[in-house]
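Q: Got a minute? One more chain.
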Amino acid sequence: MDEKWCKRHVRMRLGLATDAELARLFGISRSAVSQWPRDVPIPALRRYMLQQRYPDLFPAEKSNQAESV
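A: Always. Here it is, folded:
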């Protein structure tokens, strides 16, 4: 999996020092964020939120499959 989605890297890219700051960004509790393992990708919904709020820092990944019409 892509390392850029790990909690440690997300905090570093956003310039956040604590889990509490990351929790405020997502509007969830600090204890919820503290349960995310440090080197495991954050939940998919939170990745989507980051892509929407910070497209320059977290660009959407392109799929390898061609779209069919």
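A: The mean pLDDT is 86.
Q: Perfect, thanks.
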